[in-house]
Amino acid sequence: MDHAAHLPSPIIRHLMLALAMLALLLQAACDRDAPAPAVGAVGNAPANPSVTPTAPARTSTSTPAPTATTTATPTATATPSPTPTPTPTALPAVVQGNPRHVVLAAPVAAAGAPCGLVDTLDFPIDPPDAASVAGGGDFGVYRRRYEKYHAGEDWRGPSGGSSFGAPVFSIGHGTVTYAHPDGWGRDKGVVIVRHVFADGRTFLSFYGHLDPPSVTLRAGECVARGDTVGNIGRPRTSPHLHFEIRTHMAGEPGPGYWTEDPTVAGWMPPSQTILQERLRVAPGVLWSASPFAGRSASRLPVGETPTGDVVVLEAGDLVGLAASDGRERWRMAGNATAALVDGSRLYAVNRAGEMSAYDLPIDDGQPAPTWTEVLAVRGVPALMPAVGGGVVIGDRRQLRALAPDGSP
Asked: What is the mean pLDDT of residues 79-91?
């Protein structure tokens, strides 16, 4: 009799379970060490080239989800386009900071300038640039009620309010030569300041129509650029500042108007003078024609000749300056009050109201005029180029146009 028949049945079941587990472990070990099936083989069936299976030995019951079987379209690698070589371009000029700060200097006493030399000039209302005020465009304007020409500029206070009481400032370092609360009587207070430049030039700035209580300066005192000289007062007309730049009358108010062009009697165009002086000391300026050469009168720009000379009007003389270095190339002495360069022709009007035309270029300084026409204009006329050639002449009464040959 087999001894196993006498073993309790639970023991037999445990032995059989153990043997089955051992067989499974051995099979797993063999499978792990066996070579991988060939690509395309189904299940664990051996690859047999002579037998072509008609169907898989078994069908997988787990069908992959479509998202798993869908072959992802590979992202195309972008082929970099060749970068074109940039066309060289000129770099823009870059200015950092404020160039004005380069020329600013505190007043320091010097020989002939006890209150310091001028560093630069500002405008008398809302300095430095008078950006928020109106005025400065009426120098030399003929006023019918006086039958004279304005020797200064009228400036108003900040826009949007009354000009009365607006502060007035010294345009530059200088010495007070005159100050009086009632210097102009009913037209109120006056202050005059002398300014000295590093090259020895000097002129006076004039501030009129000031409110009398605000005039506290005295002759001989120093003022710096931007110091208050007074406030706008109430003259017989509406409140405004009468502002002049001149070379004479350091100790008296003067008339405010003149019987002819004020530039021939020692006055200078105020705003133009301030801007010219700023240009002279600006960084990078190679040269700047002095606006106070000759007979201490201003130089007014006229135009540029075909050969590159810059023509200016200086106390009645027409002067040609070399554009390269500013040297004087020729001088046409005379008593011109207005001039114009138009193409190859220079037109000039004198105090007698005569217009003369000169062919350009000019070399000897005293050429004979091509033609002369008597115009009988009043005061300083305005000259403009005429359409198609020639010149337009305007004064306070009329406009006239002359052809290049002088005919009306």
From this structure: 57
